[in-house]
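To close the chapter, one final illustration. This time we ask the reader to focus less on the individual chains and more on the assembly as a whole: which components sit near each other, and how the overall shape emerges from the parts.
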Amino acid sequence: MTAPAEQTEKNSALKRTPLHALHLELGGKMVEFAGYEMPVNYRLGVLKEHLHTRAEAGLFDVSHMGQAFVVGPDHDTTAGALETLTPGALKGLKLGAMRYSLLLNDSGGIIDDLMVARSVSSDDDGQLLLVVNAARKEVDYRDLSDRLAAGVELYTADERALLALQGPRAAAALARHCPMAEALTFMTATSTDFDGLDCHVSRSGYTGEDGFEISISAENAEEVARALLAEPEVEAIGLGARDSLRLEAGLCLYGHDLDEKTSPIEANLAWAVGKRRRGEGNFSGAERILSELEKGPERLRVGITPEGRAPAREGTEIQNEAGETIGLITSGGYGPTVGGPIAMGYVARDYSATGTPIRLLVRGVARPALVADMPFVPHRYRRANAA
Amino acid sequence: MADIKFTEAHEYILVDGDIGTIGITDYAQEQLGDIVFVELPEVGRAVKKGDEAAVVESVKAAAEVYAPVAGEVLETNKELEKNPALVNEDAEGKAWFLRIKLADADELSQLMDRQAYDSFLETLS
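The assembled structure is written out below.
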Protein backbone atom coordinates (compact mmCIF):
# COMPACT_ATOMS: atom_id res chain seq x y z
CA MET A 1 0.00 0.00 0.00
CA THR A 2 1.28 3.48 -0.90
CA ALA A 3 1.16 6.11 1.76
CA PRO A 4 -0.25 9.52 0.75
CA ALA A 5 2.36 12.17 0.05
CA GLU A 6 1.42 14.28 3.06
CA GLN A 7 2.26 11.46 5.43
CA THR A 8 5.08 12.31 7.76
CA GLU A 9 8.31 10.42 7.39
CA LYS A 10 7.80 8.75 10.75
CA ASN A 11 4.53 7.16 9.67
CA SER A 12 5.25 6.50 6.02
CA ALA A 13 7.16 3.31 6.74
CA LEU A 14 4.44 1.87 8.93
CA LYS A 15 1.82 -0.56 7.69
CA ARG A 16 -1.86 0.07 8.23
CA THR A 17 -4.81 -2.19 8.83
CA PRO A 18 -8.06 -1.88 6.83
CA LEU A 19 -9.52 0.03 9.79
CA HIS A 20 -6.90 2.80 9.82
CA ALA A 21 -9.31 5.54 8.72
CA LEU A 22 -11.85 4.42 11.31
CA HIS A 23 -9.23 4.57 14.07
CA LEU A 24 -8.51 8.20 13.18
CA GLU A 25 -12.20 9.03 13.02
CA LEU A 26 -12.68 7.55 16.49
CA GLY A 27 -9.87 9.67 17.92
CA GLY A 28 -7.38 6.84 18.15
CA LYS A 29 -3.97 7.87 19.46
CA MET A 30 -1.79 6.17 16.90
CA VAL A 31 1.52 4.56 17.78
CA GLU A 32 3.94 2.13 16.17
CA PHE A 33 3.38 -1.52 17.08
CA ALA A 34 5.07 -4.42 15.30
CA GLY A 35 5.58 -2.28 12.20
CA TYR A 36 1.95 -1.12 12.14
CA GLU A 37 0.38 2.20 12.96
CA MET A 38 -2.14 1.20 15.63
CA PRO A 39 -4.36 2.92 18.21
CA VAL A 40 -2.95 2.68 21.74
CA ASN A 41 -6.22 4.16 23.00
CA TYR A 42 -9.23 6.13 21.82
CA ARG A 43 -11.01 9.03 23.52
CA LEU A 44 -12.03 7.03 26.59
CA GLY A 45 -8.40 6.37 27.54
CA VAL A 46 -6.71 3.13 28.58
CA LEU A 47 -8.27 2.90 32.06
CA LYS A 48 -11.90 3.33 31.02
CA GLU A 49 -11.40 1.15 27.94
CA HIS A 50 -10.05 -1.62 30.15
CA LEU A 51 -12.92 -1.37 32.63
CA HIS A 52 -15.51 -1.13 29.87
CA THR A 53 -14.26 -4.38 28.35
CA ARG A 54 -14.59 -6.18 31.70
CA ALA A 55 -18.09 -4.73 32.28
CA GLU A 56 -19.60 -4.71 28.77
CA ALA A 57 -17.88 -5.37 25.45
CA GLY A 58 -14.82 -3.99 23.69
CA LEU A 59 -13.96 -4.07 20.00
CA PHE A 60 -10.29 -4.46 19.11
CA ASP A 61 -8.69 -4.24 15.68
CA VAL A 62 -6.20 -7.10 15.62
CA SER A 63 -5.80 -7.17 11.85
CA HIS A 64 -2.04 -6.74 12.28
CA MET A 65 -1.89 -10.34 13.48
CA GLY A 66 -1.01 -12.98 10.93
CA GLN A 67 -3.63 -15.32 9.55
CA ALA A 68 -2.45 -18.28 7.49
CA PHE A 69 -3.55 -21.73 6.43
CA VAL A 70 -1.53 -24.90 6.59
CA VAL A 71 -2.97 -27.21 3.97
CA GLY A 72 -2.45 -30.90 3.32
CA PRO A 73 -4.41 -33.80 1.87
CA ASP A 74 -6.22 -34.70 5.09
CA HIS A 75 -6.36 -33.67 8.75
CA ASP A 76 -4.00 -36.35 10.01
CA THR A 77 -1.31 -35.38 7.51
CA THR A 78 -1.63 -31.63 8.08
CA ALA A 79 -1.85 -31.89 11.86
CA GLY A 80 0.98 -34.43 11.86
CA ALA A 81 3.22 -32.03 9.93
CA LEU A 82 2.49 -29.21 12.36
CA GLU A 83 2.96 -31.55 15.32
CA THR A 84 6.62 -31.99 14.40
CA LEU A 85 7.10 -28.26 15.12
CA THR A 86 4.72 -27.82 18.06
CA PRO A 87 4.05 -29.72 21.30
CA GLY A 88 0.26 -29.57 20.94
CA ALA A 89 -1.97 -32.59 20.33
CA LEU A 90 -3.29 -31.22 17.05
CA LYS A 91 -4.28 -34.52 15.46
CA GLY A 92 -6.92 -34.82 18.16
CA LEU A 93 -8.58 -31.52 17.28
CA LYS A 94 -12.23 -32.02 16.42
CA LEU A 95 -13.91 -30.26 13.50
CA GLY A 96 -14.31 -26.60 14.46
CA ALA A 97 -12.03 -26.84 17.49
CA MET A 98 -9.04 -24.64 18.15
CA ARG A 99 -6.02 -24.82 20.42
CA TYR A 100 -3.30 -22.54 21.77
CA SER A 101 0.08 -23.84 20.75
CA LEU A 102 3.74 -22.94 20.39
CA LEU A 103 6.05 -22.99 17.41
CA LEU A 104 9.33 -24.40 18.71
CA ASN A 105 12.91 -24.30 17.51
CA ASP A 106 15.22 -27.31 17.71
CA SER A 107 16.45 -26.31 21.16
CA GLY A 108 12.92 -26.09 22.56
CA GLY A 109 12.75 -22.28 22.51
CA ILE A 110 9.52 -20.58 21.51
CA ILE A 111 9.55 -19.06 18.01
CA ASP A 112 5.97 -17.87 18.50
CA ASP A 113 2.76 -18.63 20.33
CA LEU A 114 -0.24 -19.12 18.11
CA MET A 115 -3.79 -20.35 17.70
CA VAL A 116 -4.51 -23.40 15.55
CA ALA A 117 -8.08 -24.06 14.39
CA ARG A 118 -9.40 -27.06 12.50
CA SER A 119 -11.90 -26.27 9.80
CA VAL A 120 -15.51 -26.73 10.89
CA SER A 121 -16.52 -28.36 7.63
CA SER A 122 -15.35 -31.80 6.61
CA ASP A 123 -15.42 -30.51 3.00
CA ASP A 124 -12.20 -28.57 3.47
CA ASP A 125 -10.70 -30.81 6.14
CA GLY A 126 -6.94 -31.06 5.95
CA GLN A 127 -6.52 -27.34 6.46
CA LEU A 128 -5.63 -25.66 9.73
CA LEU A 129 -6.05 -21.94 10.31
CA LEU A 130 -3.21 -20.29 12.21
CA VAL A 131 -3.31 -16.92 13.95
CA VAL A 132 0.19 -15.68 14.81
CA ASN A 133 1.72 -12.58 16.37
CA ALA A 134 2.15 -9.51 14.17
CA ALA A 135 5.79 -9.07 15.08
CA ARG A 136 6.56 -12.72 14.24
CA LYS A 137 4.73 -13.14 10.94
CA GLU A 138 7.78 -13.14 8.67
CA VAL A 139 9.81 -15.35 10.99
CA ASP A 140 6.96 -17.83 11.43
CA TYR A 141 6.09 -18.03 7.75
CA ARG A 142 9.69 -18.55 6.73
CA ASP A 143 10.14 -21.19 9.40
CA LEU A 144 6.95 -23.05 8.52
CA SER A 145 7.74 -22.96 4.81
CA ASP A 146 11.18 -24.38 5.51
CA ARG A 147 10.24 -27.07 7.99
CA LEU A 148 6.76 -28.34 7.13
CA ALA A 149 6.83 -31.80 5.58
CA ALA A 150 6.54 -32.14 1.80
CA GLY A 151 2.94 -32.14 0.67
CA VAL A 152 1.83 -29.74 3.38
CA GLU A 153 1.86 -26.10 2.31
CA LEU A 154 1.56 -22.74 4.00
CA TYR A 155 -0.77 -20.10 2.52
CA THR A 156 -0.87 -16.68 4.10
CA ALA A 157 -4.18 -14.84 4.25
CA ASP A 158 -2.93 -11.24 4.22
CA GLU A 159 -6.16 -10.08 2.60
CA ARG A 160 -8.09 -10.84 5.76
CA ALA A 161 -8.83 -8.55 8.68
CA LEU A 162 -9.32 -9.72 12.27
CA LEU A 163 -11.54 -8.12 14.90
CA ALA A 164 -11.83 -9.16 18.53
CA LEU A 165 -15.03 -8.54 20.47
CA GLN A 166 -14.42 -9.20 24.16
CA GLY A 167 -16.38 -8.90 27.37
CA PRO A 168 -19.44 -10.27 29.17
CA ARG A 169 -21.82 -8.55 26.71
CA ALA A 170 -19.90 -9.57 23.58
CA ALA A 171 -22.08 -12.58 22.83
CA ALA A 172 -25.31 -10.59 23.01
CA ALA A 173 -23.94 -7.83 20.77
CA LEU A 174 -22.49 -10.20 18.19
CA ALA A 175 -25.56 -12.46 18.07
CA ARG A 176 -27.64 -9.60 16.59
CA HIS A 177 -25.49 -9.79 13.45
CA CYS A 178 -24.15 -13.32 13.62
CA PRO A 179 -26.63 -15.64 15.39
CA MET A 180 -24.35 -18.66 14.97
CA ALA A 181 -21.81 -17.10 17.33
CA GLU A 182 -23.88 -17.67 20.43
CA ALA A 183 -23.79 -21.45 20.05
CA LEU A 184 -19.98 -21.55 20.05
CA THR A 185 -18.15 -22.50 23.23
CA PHE A 186 -14.66 -21.43 24.29
CA MET A 187 -11.99 -22.47 21.75
CA THR A 188 -14.40 -23.49 19.02
CA ALA A 189 -14.91 -21.78 15.68
CA THR A 190 -17.25 -21.78 12.74
CA SER A 191 -17.64 -20.34 9.27
CA THR A 192 -20.76 -18.24 9.10
CA ASP A 193 -21.89 -14.77 8.08
CA PHE A 194 -22.14 -11.34 9.68
CA ASP A 195 -25.12 -9.47 8.25
CA GLY A 196 -24.68 -11.56 5.12
CA LEU A 197 -20.88 -11.09 4.87
CA ASP A 198 -18.79 -14.26 4.98
CA CYS A 199 -16.76 -14.56 8.14
CA HIS A 200 -14.95 -17.03 10.36
CA VAL A 201 -15.77 -16.63 14.06
CA SER A 202 -14.04 -18.23 17.02
CA ARG A 203 -14.94 -17.96 20.69
CA SER A 204 -11.54 -16.96 21.99
CA GLY A 205 -9.51 -13.93 22.88
CA TYR A 206 -6.75 -12.30 24.85
CA THR A 207 -8.53 -10.61 27.74
CA GLY A 208 -9.64 -13.45 30.02
CA GLU A 209 -13.24 -12.54 29.23
CA ASP A 210 -15.77 -14.37 27.15
CA GLY A 211 -15.44 -13.12 23.59
CA PHE A 212 -14.87 -13.71 19.92
CA GLU A 213 -12.41 -13.19 17.14
CA ILE A 214 -13.98 -12.45 13.77
CA SER A 215 -11.98 -13.00 10.61
CA ILE A 216 -13.35 -11.23 7.55
CA SER A 217 -12.10 -10.02 4.20
CA ALA A 218 -10.34 -6.66 4.44
CA GLU A 219 -12.93 -4.95 2.27
CA ASN A 220 -15.72 -5.83 4.72
CA ALA A 221 -13.81 -4.99 7.89
CA GLU A 222 -15.05 -1.45 8.29
CA GLU A 223 -18.69 -2.38 7.75
CA VAL A 224 -18.47 -5.09 10.41
CA ALA A 225 -16.61 -2.83 12.84
CA ARG A 226 -19.13 -0.01 12.43
CA ALA A 227 -22.05 -2.40 12.92
CA LEU A 228 -20.54 -3.66 16.18
CA LEU A 229 -19.64 -0.17 17.41
CA ALA A 230 -23.27 0.83 16.86
CA GLU A 231 -24.34 -1.73 19.45
CA PRO A 232 -24.97 -0.08 22.85
CA GLU A 233 -22.58 -2.41 24.74
CA VAL A 234 -19.60 -1.91 22.45
CA GLU A 235 -16.74 0.60 22.63
CA ALA A 236 -13.56 0.70 20.55
CA ILE A 237 -10.58 -0.44 22.63
CA GLY A 238 -6.90 0.21 21.89
CA LEU A 239 -3.71 -1.75 22.37
CA GLY A 240 -3.03 -0.16 25.77
CA ALA A 241 -6.05 -1.79 27.35
CA ARG A 242 -5.43 -4.96 25.36
CA ASP A 243 -2.10 -5.19 27.17
CA SER A 244 -3.44 -4.48 30.68
CA LEU A 245 -6.33 -6.92 30.12
CA ARG A 246 -4.05 -9.75 29.03
CA LEU A 247 -1.65 -9.07 31.91
CA GLU A 248 -4.49 -9.36 34.43
CA ALA A 249 -5.52 -12.56 32.66
CA GLY A 250 -1.97 -13.91 33.08
CA LEU A 251 -1.49 -14.32 29.32
CA CYS A 252 1.93 -14.06 27.69
CA LEU A 253 3.03 -11.40 25.23
CA TYR A 254 5.57 -12.67 22.73
CA GLY A 255 8.86 -10.77 22.73
CA HIS A 256 8.34 -9.87 26.37
CA ASP A 257 7.26 -12.97 28.31
CA LEU A 258 8.27 -15.45 25.61
CA ASP A 259 11.25 -15.63 23.28
CA GLU A 260 13.43 -18.04 21.34
CA LYS A 261 15.50 -18.95 24.40
CA THR A 262 12.51 -19.68 26.63
CA SER A 263 10.93 -23.12 26.73
CA PRO A 264 7.23 -23.83 27.25
CA ILE A 265 8.06 -25.41 30.61
CA GLU A 266 9.93 -22.34 31.84
CA ALA A 267 7.02 -20.24 30.59
CA ASN A 268 4.66 -22.29 32.77
CA LEU A 269 2.88 -23.47 29.64
CA ALA A 270 3.39 -27.18 30.29
CA TRP A 271 -0.37 -27.59 29.80
CA ALA A 272 0.22 -26.82 26.12
CA VAL A 273 2.43 -29.92 25.82
CA GLY A 274 -0.01 -32.69 24.96
CA LYS A 275 -0.01 -35.89 27.00
CA ARG A 276 0.39 -38.09 23.93
CA ARG A 277 3.14 -35.79 22.67
CA ARG A 278 5.14 -36.26 25.88
CA GLY A 279 5.11 -39.98 25.30
CA GLU A 280 6.04 -39.66 21.65
CA GLY A 281 8.69 -36.97 22.09
CA ASN A 282 8.66 -36.34 18.36
CA PHE A 283 8.65 -32.55 18.16
CA SER A 284 11.28 -29.81 17.90
CA GLY A 285 13.15 -29.36 21.14
CA ALA A 286 11.52 -32.40 22.75
CA GLU A 287 14.75 -33.42 24.43
CA ARG A 288 15.00 -30.24 26.48
CA ILE A 289 11.27 -30.02 27.13
CA LEU A 290 10.89 -33.60 28.34
CA SER A 291 13.96 -33.20 30.53
CA GLU A 292 12.56 -30.00 32.08
CA LEU A 293 9.23 -31.71 32.65
CA GLU A 294 11.01 -34.47 34.53
CA LYS A 295 13.58 -32.48 36.49
CA GLY A 296 11.89 -29.10 36.63
CA PRO A 297 13.14 -26.04 34.74
CA GLU A 298 15.83 -23.76 36.16
CA ARG A 299 13.47 -20.80 36.10
CA LEU A 300 9.74 -20.39 35.91
CA ARG A 301 7.29 -17.71 34.84
CA VAL A 302 5.26 -16.54 37.84
CA GLY A 303 2.77 -13.86 38.74
CA ILE A 304 3.99 -11.09 41.04
CA THR A 305 2.10 -8.63 43.22
CA PRO A 306 4.20 -5.70 44.41
CA GLU A 307 3.33 -4.48 47.90
CA GLY A 308 2.34 -0.82 47.97
CA ARG A 309 1.30 1.15 44.92
CA ALA A 310 4.43 1.43 42.76
CA PRO A 311 4.20 -0.52 39.48
CA ALA A 312 7.26 -2.57 38.53
CA ARG A 313 7.78 -2.49 34.78
CA GLU A 314 9.38 -4.86 32.29
CA GLY A 315 13.09 -5.22 32.93
CA THR A 316 12.85 -4.78 36.70
CA GLU A 317 15.36 -6.95 38.55
CA ILE A 318 13.92 -9.47 41.02
CA GLN A 319 15.90 -10.24 44.19
CA ASN A 320 15.50 -12.62 47.08
CA GLU A 321 15.36 -11.30 50.63
CA ALA A 322 19.15 -11.58 50.85
CA GLY A 323 19.50 -9.15 47.95
CA GLU A 324 20.68 -11.72 45.39
CA THR A 325 19.38 -11.50 41.83
CA ILE A 326 16.90 -14.30 41.14
CA GLY A 327 15.06 -13.10 38.05
CA LEU A 328 13.53 -10.42 35.90
CA ILE A 329 10.09 -8.95 35.33
CA THR A 330 8.94 -9.43 31.73
CA SER A 331 5.57 -7.62 31.90
CA GLY A 332 4.43 -5.27 34.59
CA GLY A 333 2.19 -2.34 35.22
CA TYR A 334 -1.07 -1.34 36.78
CA GLY A 335 -4.09 -3.62 36.69
CA PRO A 336 -7.19 -1.43 36.46
CA THR A 337 -9.55 -4.22 37.57
CA VAL A 338 -7.16 -5.37 40.30
CA GLY A 339 -6.80 -1.73 41.33
CA GLY A 340 -3.08 -1.98 41.92
CA PRO A 341 0.26 -2.99 40.45
CA ILE A 342 0.73 -6.48 38.98
CA ALA A 343 3.51 -8.14 37.04
CA MET A 344 4.82 -11.39 35.65
CA GLY A 345 8.36 -12.50 35.32
CA TYR A 346 10.86 -15.33 35.57
CA VAL A 347 12.38 -16.44 38.88
CA ALA A 348 14.74 -19.24 39.84
CA ARG A 349 12.63 -22.31 40.55
CA ASP A 350 13.28 -22.25 44.31
CA TYR A 351 11.41 -18.96 44.50
CA SER A 352 8.45 -19.88 42.30
CA ALA A 353 5.97 -21.03 44.96
CA THR A 354 2.94 -18.80 45.47
CA GLY A 355 3.43 -16.53 48.46
CA THR A 356 7.24 -16.48 48.29
CA PRO A 357 8.48 -13.07 49.46
CA ILE A 358 10.70 -11.35 46.88
CA ARG A 359 12.10 -7.87 46.25
CA LEU A 360 11.76 -5.74 43.13
CA LEU A 361 14.48 -3.25 42.34
CA VAL A 362 12.47 -0.20 41.24
CA ARG A 363 14.49 3.02 40.78
CA GLY A 364 17.31 1.63 42.88
CA VAL A 365 15.12 0.71 45.84
CA ALA A 366 14.41 -2.95 46.69
CA ARG A 367 10.65 -3.06 47.27
CA PRO A 368 8.77 -6.00 48.77
CA ALA A 369 6.53 -8.19 46.60
CA LEU A 370 5.02 -11.66 46.61
CA VAL A 371 4.92 -14.44 44.06
CA ALA A 372 1.24 -14.70 43.16
CA ASP A 373 -1.16 -17.01 41.41
CA MET A 374 -2.32 -16.09 37.94
CA PRO A 375 -4.67 -15.04 36.53
CA PHE A 376 -4.96 -11.88 38.62
CA VAL A 377 -8.58 -11.58 37.47
CA PRO A 378 -10.52 -14.85 37.08
CA HIS A 379 -11.11 -16.03 33.51
CA ARG A 380 -14.73 -15.93 32.46
CA TYR A 381 -14.62 -18.09 29.36
CA ARG A 382 -17.77 -19.82 28.22
CA ARG A 383 -16.58 -23.39 28.40
CA ALA A 384 -18.44 -26.30 26.84
CA ASN A 385 -18.97 -28.08 30.17
CA ALA A 386 -20.21 -24.95 31.98
CA ALA A 387 -23.92 -24.36 32.45
CA MET B 1 2.69 38.13 42.61
CA ALA B 2 3.17 34.52 41.56
CA ASP B 3 4.94 33.85 38.33
CA ILE B 4 4.72 30.56 36.35
CA LYS B 5 7.54 29.10 34.27
CA PHE B 6 7.83 25.96 32.15
CA THR B 7 10.42 23.43 31.01
CA GLU B 8 10.69 21.58 27.72
CA ALA B 9 10.05 18.39 29.71
CA HIS B 10 6.61 19.77 30.61
CA GLU B 11 7.12 20.66 34.25
CA TYR B 12 5.87 23.95 35.60
CA ILE B 13 7.09 25.94 38.56
CA LEU B 14 4.85 28.52 40.17
CA VAL B 15 7.11 31.01 41.94
CA ASP B 16 6.08 33.10 44.91
CA GLY B 17 9.00 34.87 46.53
CA ASP B 18 11.67 32.21 47.07
CA ILE B 19 9.15 29.34 47.12
CA GLY B 20 8.47 27.31 43.97
CA THR B 21 5.51 24.92 43.48
CA ILE B 22 6.32 22.22 40.92
CA GLY B 23 4.04 19.99 38.88
CA ILE B 24 3.48 18.68 35.37
CA THR B 25 1.56 20.60 32.74
CA ASP B 26 -1.87 19.85 31.42
CA TYR B 27 -0.25 18.85 28.13
CA ALA B 28 1.92 16.31 30.01
CA GLN B 29 -1.00 14.66 31.81
CA GLU B 30 -2.87 14.48 28.52
CA GLN B 31 0.09 12.71 26.90
CA LEU B 32 0.50 10.27 29.78
CA GLY B 33 -3.15 9.33 30.02
CA ASP B 34 -4.72 7.89 33.16
CA ILE B 35 -2.32 8.48 36.06
CA VAL B 36 -2.29 5.57 38.52
CA PHE B 37 0.75 6.26 40.68
CA VAL B 38 2.81 9.18 41.91
CA GLU B 39 6.04 8.92 43.90
CA LEU B 40 7.13 12.02 45.78
CA PRO B 41 10.54 12.96 47.20
CA GLU B 42 11.50 13.15 50.87
CA VAL B 43 10.97 16.51 52.51
CA GLY B 44 14.35 18.10 53.17
CA ARG B 45 16.02 16.61 50.10
CA ALA B 46 18.16 18.99 48.08
CA VAL B 47 17.56 18.79 44.34
CA LYS B 48 19.63 20.23 41.55
CA LYS B 49 18.15 21.58 38.34
CA GLY B 50 17.31 18.54 36.17
CA ASP B 51 17.34 16.02 39.03
CA GLU B 52 14.57 13.46 39.17
CA ALA B 53 12.26 14.94 41.80
CA ALA B 54 9.21 12.69 41.44
CA VAL B 55 7.80 9.84 39.35
CA VAL B 56 4.42 9.74 37.66
CA GLU B 57 3.00 6.57 36.13
CA SER B 58 0.08 5.89 33.83
CA VAL B 59 -1.37 2.45 33.11
CA LYS B 60 1.20 1.99 30.37
CA ALA B 61 4.33 3.88 31.34
CA ALA B 62 6.43 5.60 33.97
CA ALA B 63 7.77 9.14 33.59
CA GLU B 64 10.19 11.19 35.69
CA VAL B 65 9.40 14.65 36.92
CA TYR B 66 12.57 16.76 36.88
CA ALA B 67 13.30 19.71 39.10
CA PRO B 68 13.07 22.83 36.90
CA VAL B 69 15.53 24.60 39.20
CA ALA B 70 17.62 23.75 42.26
CA GLY B 71 16.22 23.90 45.77
CA GLU B 72 15.30 22.11 48.96
CA VAL B 73 12.05 20.15 49.16
CA LEU B 74 9.76 21.83 51.70
CA GLU B 75 6.52 19.98 51.20
CA THR B 76 4.95 17.34 48.96
CA ASN B 77 1.34 16.89 47.89
CA LYS B 78 0.37 13.74 49.80
CA GLU B 79 -3.09 13.89 48.24
CA LEU B 80 -1.53 12.57 45.00
CA GLU B 81 -0.46 9.35 46.71
CA LYS B 82 -4.09 8.67 47.65
CA ASN B 83 -5.64 10.01 44.48
CA PRO B 84 -3.16 10.02 41.56
CA ALA B 85 -6.02 10.65 39.10
CA LEU B 86 -6.13 14.22 40.43
CA VAL B 87 -3.21 14.88 38.06
CA ASN B 88 -5.54 14.23 35.12
CA GLU B 89 -8.21 16.47 36.59
CA ASP B 90 -6.22 19.51 37.66
CA ALA B 91 -2.56 19.18 36.70
CA GLU B 92 -1.74 22.87 36.93
CA GLY B 93 -3.85 23.48 40.05
CA LYS B 94 -4.65 21.10 42.90
CA ALA B 95 -2.33 18.36 41.57
CA TRP B 96 0.98 20.10 42.30
CA PHE B 97 3.76 17.65 43.22
CA LEU B 98 6.18 19.46 45.51
CA ARG B 99 7.23 22.81 46.92
CA ILE B 100 10.87 23.85 47.08
CA LYS B 101 12.82 26.69 48.55
CA LEU B 102 14.73 28.06 45.59
CA ALA B 103 18.51 27.79 45.82
CA ASP B 104 19.25 30.17 42.97
CA ALA B 105 16.45 32.38 41.63
CA ASP B 106 18.60 33.26 38.61
CA GLU B 107 17.96 29.77 37.20
CA LEU B 108 14.34 30.80 36.56
CA SER B 109 15.45 33.01 33.69
CA GLN B 110 16.42 29.89 31.72
CA LEU B 111 12.79 28.65 31.75
CA MET B 112 9.93 29.51 29.40
CA ASP B 113 7.04 31.79 30.27
CA ARG B 114 3.46 30.77 29.38
CA GLN B 115 3.60 32.31 25.93
CA ALA B 116 6.92 30.68 25.05
CA TYR B 117 5.68 27.31 26.34
CA ASP B 118 2.48 27.54 24.29
CA SER B 119 4.56 28.27 21.19
CA PHE B 120 6.81 25.35 22.07
CA LEU B 121 3.77 23.02 22.30
CA GLU B 122 2.71 24.06 18.82
CA THR B 123 6.01 22.81 17.45
CA LEU B 124 5.33 19.36 18.91
CA SER B 125 2.07 18.44 17.17
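Residues 57 and 170 of chain A are 5 Å apart (CA to CA). The radius of gyration of chain A is 21 Å. With these observations in hand, you are ready for the problems at the end of the chapter.
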